[in-house]
Amino acid sequence: MNKVIKIENQFRVIRVALSIAIALAIAFLIISFVSNDPLFTMYNFIIGPFTSINRIGNIIEVMTPLLFTAVGVCIMYSANQINMASEGAFFLGGVATAYIAVTYSIPAGLHPVVAILAGGIVGAFICGIPALMYVKFKALPVVSSLMINYVCLYLGLFIINYIIRDPEAGYMASYKFIKTAVLPDLFSRTNVHFGLIIGLAIVFIGYLYLMKSKWGYSIRMIGKNPNFAKYSGINVPAVIIGCQLLGGFIAGIGGAVEQLGMYTRFQYQKLPGHGFDGVMIAILARYNPKYVPLAAFFLAYIRVGADVMARTSDVPVEIVSIIQAVIIIFVASERFLEGWKLKKIVKSTKEAFVEEEDNAVKEA
Amino acid sequence: MNNVKDEYILSMENITKIYGNGFMANKNVNLRVKKGEIHALIGENGAGKSTLMKVLFGQEQPEEGKIIYKGKEVKITNPLVALDHGIGMVHQHFMLAPSLTVAENMVLGIEPKNKGFFDYAEAVRLTSEVSKKYNLPIDPNAKVKDLPVGYKQRVEILKILLRGVDVLILDEPTAVLTPQETDELFVQLRELRKQGYTIIFISHKLKEVKSLCDNLTVLRNGRVTGIASVADLSEQDISRLMVGRDVSLTIEKDSPKTKKTVLKVRNLTYKNSDNKALVSNVSFSIREGEILGIAGVEGNGQREISALITGLEEKQSGDIYLFDEEISSQSIRKLREKGVSHISEDRMTFGTVADASVEENLISDRFYKKEFNKNGLLDAKKIADLSNKLIKEYLVKCDSKNAEIKTLSGGNIQKVVAAREFSANPKLIIANQPTRGIDVGASEFIRKKLISLRDKGSAVLLISADLTEVITVSDSLLVMNEGKIVAYFDDTNDLTEETVGEYMLGIKHQTAEEIGGCCYE
Q1: Contact B101/B141 with Cβ under 8 angstroms?
Q2: pTM, two decimal places
Q3: pLDDT by residue (tens digit) across B128-146?
Q4: Domain B260-339+426-521 has what CATH class?
Q5: ipTM score assigned to the predicted complex
């Protein structure tokens, strides 16, 4: 039986690797049709992101907000709660933070803390609504959470465009954040900011919480078999609500950190998509926060690669969407490579059986 | 040579089946069945009987081997192909639509049509015809959900006869029947044999095999360990072939030393969403050091009683006291902390998480306690110590504490459940079908553990559809029929299965006073 577990683990890795390979192959295929100089284009796509400090910095910048939303999703989805509201939580969390960052003057060290906490609390509230609706009314979180994202978007835009809009900005945006609220950059020549540290801390704490603590244990057992959890004495509704509040809180913090680290004023006019990206990364990481940085880095890398490619060659940035879609489809397909896996399991079982028979004969 | 071939209507040769989790359910199995015989396929649960029959009925595809039917090799790729060939199967769990009538169920998939519409009258006629032909009376217009179990089974048998089969596979047909219903089924099966039908009878009950079957094939661990004529073997011989060693069919235990009353159930009534009373006005008590059994055909309120006591279902009316404290409004965690342990009848739905490790399954009732936590995280070392200790003490066969539950056999999964529940220092154990579907060795182990816990002072409620088990293990016994208690025996020593069977069927009924013997303060 040990062999079977080994084969299953092998196949998890093979599946991800193969999915990525297939996706890249498809991307290259398309590039070679579209581009006049496919080799140069591909070079920019694959190697481009690593050719300057600035571009490497870009990868880290793109990756930072994803760390938050993905860890939040890992926690919610481990309880098998398919909550998509981390998108809204990220957005509205950012709005709340912007509000605090432009209206209140608070001493330097404290200002970002208050602003980020405000973002977290708003985020928790957003993801908590579908959770509560599920526990109380059995409304499926997939549906209700997707709807809530739009409420978040338009509520946020209302606040930005009517309450804290800076009429002198020249475009739809809030007032400038007060200096005391802004998160410092970590390295010169890049925009990599202190949020990266917070993000990595969240990954580490999220990992301990979900995989090593009693709360994480409850969440994972509920996700795998809620009947068992109830029978064992775990308060299932409380944990289901709790883990979504926490997931939303982390997404909200992510929105806050992104605002204070990357921007000088709130200027989103649509949902940025980082919450949905979080879902994708969490799936790639198999809901284990430990693998989130790797998955987030990969996604950020192909995004930056596509960006470099679009700027330096004749292929548009949209190619990335194709790659993402293909990877996720294959990774999420439970049955992908199943036949091959089954064959290997059958073979190894048969070998073990023959060996067992031989030993029995020898003993006799 | 030709003659030998003709003699067997069906032969399965060198069948090997490996499941996706690496479990080898059949290892080079041969099965040869003669025309017109009742052939017993016996073995413990998990020996591979059901898998072999699923292969024959086309529900599973074998990795190796071939099936020769009526002298020709056949490929049975799905159940419809099997039916086309004339092979039909009655599953252990009935495949009937409960809200439809008998006639509607009978013609499911082969509905007679009249101008494109379903011809119900014709369905009724077909049903009556086949029922008369085989002398198995049934009311075609009755709703299946209103039928007693024995009749549901009859519908299943008639259903495959209607499809014109020659070979009937019956998967543990007596598991859900009372002794009386079993006798009746056997009469029907002998009648079918007389008419030339071939029957494959799957069972692990030796008495039944001895009384009904002509030849037998014994499976153990996926291998054939014996092929013989039933007349040539004694029950002891067969059981040795099944288990691989001599098993004592009796259980030794001292007479109970009862003390304080632990559990009092009073006037418990529970209705389902159709307002049908699944449990009606049930009262009983259990003392320390006593095993109270509940016998009854499954689905007569036992599941609900255990769910109500253990807090899985919300109480509707009546009272449940644990040491004189009303407990029905308390959380499951509180109940467990007060010493209520629960072996659920469905170990894969409630008892375990298939995708979690043995260790994770062992700690589910205590992981939150101080002793298993350190610095805000679970104390991995203490938990590992506990898991390794329990795995050893309960003889759980697994690669390690980190093996996923789904890689274990049924018996070992149940041992994991027992290890958790019995090690929680229980005052009251609700054991619902604790040995269902597991091998003889594991069953014996769990029964002995129950008795030793009772000797240490635990109160045990043993709910079981296995009459032999519930009579031999229990000190006193309740019998349930349709949600009511119909009999109470304060001593199980001289009780026979036949007596209990009569009450289970609802043929006999004790007076309220006699039943009241089971209630004390």
Answers
A1: yes
A2: 0.83
A3: 999 998 888 999 999 998 8
A4: alpha beta
A5: 0.87
